[in-house]
Amino acid sequence: MRIDILTLFPEMFDSPLHHSILHRAQERGIVVVAVTNIRDFTTDKYRKVDDKPYGGGPGMVMMPGPVFDCFEHVEKLAPQRGRVILLTPQGPRLDQAKARELAQEERLILLAGRYEGFDERIRLGLDAEPISIGDYVLNGGELAAMVIVDSVVRLLPGALGDEDSAQDDSFSDGLLEYPQYTRPEDFRGMKVPGILLSGDHGKIAEWRRRQSLERTANWRPDLLGPDAR
Ligand code: 4FV
């Protein structure tokens, strides 16, 4: 897979991309991640990328010119067409199903904005798909773009070693994951549930299922659908 990220702060991606699973996935050639600075595609001496909103109002808006020029440059960097995603609080929310869907793509092109957001003609003109990581406002789309990279790359074949697995992830079956325990059996008087020490895998699976259902009902009843509530 190839992931291109268009941003005004390419350096924000240095650290997350050079640690752990994301770093190893690039090392293994499972994914190529390229970050391009939109400001490198300005034409004026002030390298202007934002301007006042038509119709008035607070803040500034990202201008279409530099983003289109940057996009058209990035597009040519690889033959694959690429699924274009614009990170915005106005988009449908990212979830594990969407992450799995995106992990099927051969190329993603992520648009990370700043200020009040993008001129609307960027979404329309680049036929970009809006995605939100949650109902809160960030200072920029960079962290949201990184969330997409992280949640998608770990689903790519070979990205996760056997020390970490995606199959029992939360949401893999629409429920929250069951509680996990490891050594020591007794930590400051807090004991591991006996069932987990029983070796009876049937009973353990049953207990885990019940735990998943219980904590999903308590913490995320919305995941259980209308009739469960
Ligand atoms: C966001 C989100 C988000 C809005 C204005 C960047 C900010 C600024 N992106 N999910 N929530 N973006 O808050 O994706 O440009």
Model description:
The protein is α/β, with parallel strands linked by helices. The chain is built from 7 helices and 9 strands, in the order βααβββαβαβαβαββα. It has helices spanning 14-17, 20-27, 64-75, 96-102, 120-125, 142-153, 201-219, and strands at residues 2-7, 32-37, 50-51, 61-62, 83-87, 107-111, 129-131, 186-187, 190-191. The longest helix is centred in the C-terminal third of the chain and has 19 residues, at 201-219. The radius of gyration is 22 Å and the shape is elongated. 24% of the residues are buried. The mean pLDDT is 94. It binds ligand 4FV. The site of ligand 4FV has 16 residues, from loops.
Q: Gap between N and C termini, in Å?
A: 40 Å
DSSP summary, beta strand count: 9
**Approximate helicity band:** 25-40%
Q: Roughly how many Å is the radius of gyration?
A: 22 Å
- What is the chain-wise order of helices and strands? EHHEEEHEHEHEHEEH
User: Strand-residue fraction?
Assistant: 5-15%
Please outline the major beta sheet: 5 strands, parallel
Shape assignment: elongated
Bound molecules: ligand 4FV
Number of helices: 7
The strand order across the widest sheet is 2-1-6-5-7
List the helices and strands and how they pair.
Elements: E1 2-7, H1 14-17, H2 20-27, E2 32-37, E3 50-51, E4 61-62, H3 64-75, E5 83-87, H4 96-102, E6 107-111, H5 120-125, E7 129-131, H6 142-153, E8 186-187, E9 190-191, H7 201-219
Notable traits:
229 residues; alpha/beta; five-stranded parallel sheet; two-stranded antiparallel ribbon; 7 helices; 30% helix; 14% strand; binds ligand 4FV
